[in-house]
Amino acid sequence: MDEKMFKARTKKLAVAIIKQMDKLPNSRAADVVARQVIRSGTSVGANYRAACRAKSTPDMINKMKIVEEEADETEYWLEILVEAGLAPEEQLARIHKETDEILTMTVASIKTLRNRK
Length: 117
Known about the structure:
about 85% helix; 4 helices; de novo design (two linked rop proteins); elongated; mainly alpha; about 0% strand; about 120 residues
């Protein structure tokens, strides 16, 4: 997958997360977790864009590690929503799957970059 497609995919994920979090029930717990999901989920694409502007391979690896961390954190918060009974698993399945695929591709990219050194 090329840079342009990955940028589009991470942005699409961010928008989907924002829309999905608005569908959660109005409760204090849902609000707190939704804010966390939105923060980490939108950060994936923002940090990938920063990685694309890296000044060196080590700089890009460091920035891609942030993408990895944010994607992993997003998965964590999605799991919390389901396990706490704030959202049915089916409601978040598509977003969770996309986040997992982005995480997998990010890890593979980091490995490729490390081998390039």
